[in-house]
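In response to the reviewer comment on reproducibility (Comment 2.3), we provide here a single inverse folding case reported in full, input and output, so that an independent group could reproduce the run without further information from us. The structure tokens appear first.
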């Protein structure tokens, strides 16, 4: 993404990235990631980035993710860690927080349903 004519080019401060723990038989999933060939600044926000610039940068990063063969593995890594910054697996940090909240609610509902089923079976 090129800066707008009235904005200076900002270089992203890239947080140190954790090495993904999961490895497949063919090696770690991240070796196949398309983003390894793109600049990291596309995936991580510079400090005090204007909203319009952030949204454009995130959309560009998501387009890279969309063509990545390990997008699902990347997304799950970011959700399991959880990665607090950047675009991972086609999701921003805010979008990952929504996914995690939904998973927590689903887990609570599944536990409630299992407990209710056990109580019904016991009362049988």
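Designed residues, in position order:
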């Amino acid at each position: 993404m090129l800066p707008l004519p009235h904005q200076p080019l900002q270089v992203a401060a890239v947080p140190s990235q954790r090495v993904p723990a999961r490895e497949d038989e063919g090696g770690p999933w991240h070796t196949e990631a398309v983003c390894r060939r793109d600049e990291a600044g596309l995936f991580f926000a510079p400090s005090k980035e204007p909203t319009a610039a952030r949204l454009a940068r995130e959309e560009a990063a998501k387009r890279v993710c969309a063509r990545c063969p390990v997008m699902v593995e990347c997304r799950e890594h970011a959700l399991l860690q959880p990665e607090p910054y950047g675009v991972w697996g086609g999701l921003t940090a805010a979008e990952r927080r929504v996914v995690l909240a939904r998973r927590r609610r689903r887990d609570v509902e599944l536990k409630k349903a299992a407990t209710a089923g056990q109580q019904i079976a016991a009362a049988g």
